[in-house]
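Self-study notes.
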Amino acid sequence: MHISSAGSQRAGSVWLKMPSSVWLWALSVAVLTGNLFSAAAYERTERNCSLTPPYLPSTAVNTTLQLQELRGQMLPLNISAYIIPGTDAHLSEYIASRDARMAFMTGFTGSAGTAVVTQTKAALWTDSRYWVQAERQMDCNWELEKDVSIISVAEWLISEVPPGGNIGFDPFLFSLQTQESYAMSLESSNRILKSIPVNLVDQVWKERPPLPPYNLTRLPDRVIQRTWQMKVDQIRSVMTSNPYQPTALLLSALDETAWLFNLRGNDIPYNPFFYSYTLLTLDEIWLFVHTDRVSEDLKVYLSASCTGPLCVQLKSYDSVRENLKTYVAQPEVKVWIGTEYTNYALYEIITPQEKLMTSSYSPVLTTKAVKDETEERILREAHVRDAVAVIQLLIWLEKSVPKGNVTELSAAEYVNYCRSKQKDNKGPSFETISASGPNAALAHYSPSEGTSRRLTVDEMYLVDSGGQYLDGTTDITRTVHWGTPTDMQKEAFTRVLMGNIEISQTVFPSGTSGVRIEMLGRRALWEVGLNYGHGTGHGVGNYFGVHEWPVGFQTNNIPFRAGMFTSIEPGYYKENDFGIRIEDIAVTIPVHTKYGHNFLTFDTVSLVPYDRKLIDTSLLSAKQLQWLNKYYETIRRLVGPELDKQGLHEEKDWMLRNTEPFTEAGSSASVCSSSLTLIALVFALHNVV
């Protein structure tokens, strides 16, 4: 369980005041029960910079040398401050270890944050999920700013940088929005934001991790419907039909190039991507990669030895800026970029503005969002095999948890082991969220050696996990209880399930934005004053990212069309007590209605039953029960044969027991549910994008 920094210090002072005999007794209990962090939790685990000398835990990293060397790099450039974001040049969700510049400079390894260094100070900004972690990992060279807003960073810079001072940044690590936000916040302060294309941290990072061993591969024919040449022609057709007449399309997000050429790599954790950019013109293709890692077979595959419109010209990854500058210098050219994933280093050289065309997402991302027939079929197949692995996990937990020998960490490892036995598995699609009791109240908690709790029959358990398969990417969350749940836990779980069902069974016009539907996932919770603080769903790819933009239920997602895959994942989290999330992947499919002909609904492709003891059927409407029973019939129909094929008789018996149909029961909620669904659909009809 993460607790606040202040809370940790208070707890530490209590332990320091205890008699040694009491301390040793309590420590022994902690080790034996396993229900607290670990024995190490009762040591002083956070820094205390107010002491003389300062107290630093063993987890803190000495950053004196790298700060000294970075400041040395700043001096000749006349830089008063240097901003270090926690991202890479492709604005990726996950970054490789060689791009973890913020972690190298600060010692802090959280996934979100911004560091700033001046000649006399250094500060880190991160959100509340990571405050305790930062206090444990940073030494006293660093201040912790408990905020994440650019306004907060800018205010600190104004207070620390003298008027007229330069604030340096690597434009490859800034999105267009980030650069604009800093520029606006500093606009009237007489501080100058200075773009420095050579990263200063890289200049002092002597042991920066090298590129991983290369494994750039083409997808086998059995998992693709469109060749890369067909995709290039398709995207060029979008370009020529655009009224603004772009002559080139710049692809910066890593999944864009991987999709276009049907290639996969291993440069990024959990994601089969490789460092790359693409400049696609109407008659040329420039692929920017580390060319020494492209095999001869791939060069033949990409037709790299010719110069025609379907020949890929391989160029050095690091030369993208100079090559783009050369292209833009030509007369009568216009470069189309997607602003969400293009870094500022490439944007700033596309001048004048007449040579630039922008949209939030590139046509590759919007085209990729709609799966073709083969992609849809194989992604469904991957979810069938994935269900087998999750069922094996749930059976193992049922047997092992009562014995007291399972921790959050061992459960996370076991589900990944089960997936590794399935056909075409390529590893996990993200770090497994395995959380019990109060840890599950932290929506994105993942266990570590220091925080992993022992699972017990007296607490709820949430597992959010996924796999990468050659034919698809999976993401599924189930919440279970092996003992006797409280009435409140059952009601909260059932209302979360009701939200999942309400979205899953809704019918809506094609072209409806997900944000118009999202409230259906919250309605049953809202009725009793409950809610959740995260998004309700995200896109998912075919052996791609588990969070695949731009599909989902947020305001900046594109409207739904047939063939889009999204997660549906309402939840509820009671602080310091328990957490509930039910997440399924679903695909949008056409549906026949009485009068309309262009309507969609969701078809759930995740195929693992929900915990029966947590479902209060008296709260479900007849329509919701009908949907649930039909879903269980689908699990039996699709997963049953796969279990037979793999000879998993115990798993099949478990699946059959847990997909027994529920008794139909009337409920006053049915009227409320139907009425609210109708209201939501009317709202959607008036807001179709």
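Second protein, same conventions, sequence then structure:
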Amino acid sequence: MSSVTLSPASTTSPGNPSIFYRNRRTTTTTHPKCRSRFRAKPLRAALVEEARPRALPPVRGNNNINGAVSGANVSSIVPSSRDRADDIQAESKALARAINATVYSPELLKFKYASRPFKVLRRTLQILVGLGSFGLKLYIDQLQGQLEQNRRSRAIELRETFTRLGPTFVKIGQGLSTRPDLCPPEFLEELSELQDALPTFPDAEAFACIEKELGMSLDSIYSSISTSPIAAASLGQVYKAKLKYSGQLVAVKVQRPGIEEAIGLDFYLIRGLGFLINKYVDIITSDVVALIDEFARRVYQELNYVQEGQNARRFKKLYADKEDVLVPDIFWDYTSAKVLTMEWVEGVKLNEQAIIEGQGLKVLDLVNTGIQCSLRQLLEYGYFHADPHPGNLLATPEGKLAFLDFGMMSETPEEARFAIIGHVVHMVNRDYEAMARDYYALDFLSPDVDVTPIVPALRNFFDDALNSTVSELNFKTIVDGLGAVLYQYPFNVPAYYALILRSLTVLEGLALYADPNFKVLAASYPYFAKRLLTDPNPYLRDALIELLFKDGKFRWNRLENLLVQGKQDRDFAAKDALQPVLKLVLGPDGEELRSLVTKEAIRVTEAITVGTVIDTYNSIPGPLRTFIPNGNGIGPGGLSEAEMESMMELRQQVLRIWGLLRQSDNFDPSILTPILQVLQEPEARNLGGRVFGGITQRLAARLLQQVLRSPAPTRAPTL
């Protein structure tokens, strides 16, 4: 890849790695036209939004505006309040440049194209010829029994057809490339090439667009820029450049010319097809027009690069606090509706396993980072990256996972976030009635739909699937099984849910390339366990109670399993797993739960006490045990062997759980302080009194039983 040098006077110290990465494959040439236009003039420094590293401000009073600065000085630059104010001002100017950005409006499209029948007809014929010929070939393959034999060649034809039909169909193909529940593997592989292997448009048009959008000449912005794009996407193409004022390497994304006209007409036609499907195709129960509108709205949002920059800033604020996640910064001074300038990221696409492992990195570690970050996106803040295909996920040389392309984002409603976690709990418990009711909260069903007929369908699928442990389930298996249920009943799948499936299936697909036995649910379960144990949300607290209590009994094995899984999450904190539960028990609505806890506390205390007695009894030499009253029982206190085993097992479980809490990375005995404070509350004292009374009664009963069972002592014979 060559680059255009726009200013021979603008240089940056190559020994400063904090400013930019050096690409050894890039050669620099001088473009005559750009040299003739060059006019040396000072520029106001563009400030990077929360930049890390910060872009260097120009050295005032120096002809060399780049000012070579040492790495130590770069790291010591701290953004001031003035910097932040300038950032806000630069973003405001970018918003002003995007004031006329196109938005999706079905009414405007109808008004525009209803009066242009010849253009509509011409495009309709193009689409029908392209897709119709492909469909006819599939039909012939089916008649001749050659579907399997010709699958690869048909997948290539479909990719080429989507490419010829333009950006709208490329976006559709990209969506299909992440749906293993809809497409065979050969189609997934071919359509995945649509992610970045697209035809480019002329560089002259791209450079003219940059100058028009930003209102500045090319040589006043960059000291060099690649003479051809380094990547081409469905809506634009990307150049690698060096900012003139700072020497910072940046990626410059430029929108395809005439893109609004092309996708507007396509969505007008596709929407018309959606009306026909809604009216005449009974097998599809979802509102197809609504799904098309949602998809079109998101594609139009991708056309506004200022919106994409704001998406990136929000995403970084929420998720880049983790040291293994990287989100590039946005340069607002050089961003508009059709031009986006962001920090350059050196990295390798996540599906290039050999190159990644050649750098000493592990693909599965990076994928697991992506899964944990996606779970935070989907279930913690609800704001998630809806297009995580391999071209948008890079492995950096430092082992970080870099997210790119923030045009397509989505949000999970708050109620749905908790319902998803609860749904997983109900699946683990095989509580299919509760699973069916979850679909109300997930907005899959309207409140007037009776879920009773859905329960047997869920039971038939999950009873078979859950014969394996949950951690062994493949995410695609769940998607396929639920898909079969969804098609049989009046479900209306929300757009956000389809995007969630897309996000997780992509990550699982990437992991399966590296490890065919990888299971995304196994990697996700520690996060679910942590949230259940630590989140004070009432919905999740109820889900935790359902998981831990059954038929009035506490399931210590479930708590132990949750702790084992939760500890695998790096953010798990033992203190967070204790106090919220106590507050729930001692709350005003916790009477029923207090009764259960009282019973269990009595059992545990008795088990620990009796277990200690048993240990003491077993440590006594055999001959001396005959002097200890033992009634008619086998063990001390008249306990049967079965009772002793049960109590010893319960005690061991409780001690293991305490050990798990103590082994937590951030365990500190001081975490018991808030618990002691909670125990000072009136309800806690009442609960303690009930537990103490229950224990006293149980031990007194056992003592009385021992006395009544003890035989009269025999006297030694006298001589």
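Instructor comment on the second fold: Residues 591-619 form the longest helix (29 residues).
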